[in-house]
Structure formats: C-alpha cells, structure tokens
Design brief:
The protein is α+β, with helices and mostly antiparallel strands and 116 residues long. Helix content is 32%, strand content 23%.
Length: 116
C-alpha cells in the first residue's frame, strides 16, 4: 500500500529510473543521476539531512509502495510570500510524481491522495 515515508535506500532502482525520466525529459536536466546511483546511501542521507530549501525549513518525504518510488513531497514548515501565493492558488503541497516517461505510475491518482 502506498505511503509517505522518510527517504530510503530500499527504493533505489525505481528512484534512479524515475530520476532518469526527470532528467531525460528536461524536468531536471542537471540532476546527477549517475552520481546519486553510485552512492545512493549517501544521496539519501543528504536528502534527509537537508533542513532548508531557499531559507525555509522543510521535510522531504518520498511516496513509496514497497520498493517502488512513486514521487516526492516537500513539506515547507513556513510560508514565504511566494509559497503563500501558491497556497492561495491551491498549488500546495509540492508533490512530484515522475514525469510522463514514467507512465508506470503517473495518472494513477497518487498526487490526489496527498491533498488535504
């Protein structure tokens, strides 16, 4: 059953596949897929240790189903003027299911179940 969890090395293969999709489809063209894959434990540690994003306290969670990575949710613990305008436009939470090449999990309603 899908759930939100702290990033984990257990989803390495599906995460790397999704990261390649993000990179190859220019969603994250500079994402260092090979570097992350080579030391995935270190990458996971850095993701967990990241406490701020653009000066805002954050918690990063991965949406997983067993050993399958389905997406990332970044919880911002404080609103900035930019994030507050996104909230008012109903574009929060920040949820990133893999891009269209990753149709394995896209359009399966995963993002909707994360909304309040």
């Amino acid at each position: 059953m899908p759930n939100l969890a702290e990033p984990t090395v257990l989803v390495r293969d599906s995460f790397v596949e999704a990261a390649r999709d993000f990179r190859d489809e220019s969603w994250l063209p500079d994402f260092p897929v090979e570097e992350a894959a080579a030391d995935f434990g270190g990458y996971v540690h850095r993701v967990i240790a990241r406490e701020h994003n653009r000066g805002v306290p954050v918690t990063t969670l991965w949406y997983t189903d067993g050993a399958t990575y389905l997406g990332t949710v970044i919880v911002r613990h404080r609103l900035t003027p930019r994030t507050d305008s996104l909230r008012r436009a109903h574009r929060i939470p920040d949820c990133s299911p893999p891009p269209p090449a990753g149709t394995r999990h896209r359009h399966a309603g995963s993002g909707a179940c994360l909304l309040p």
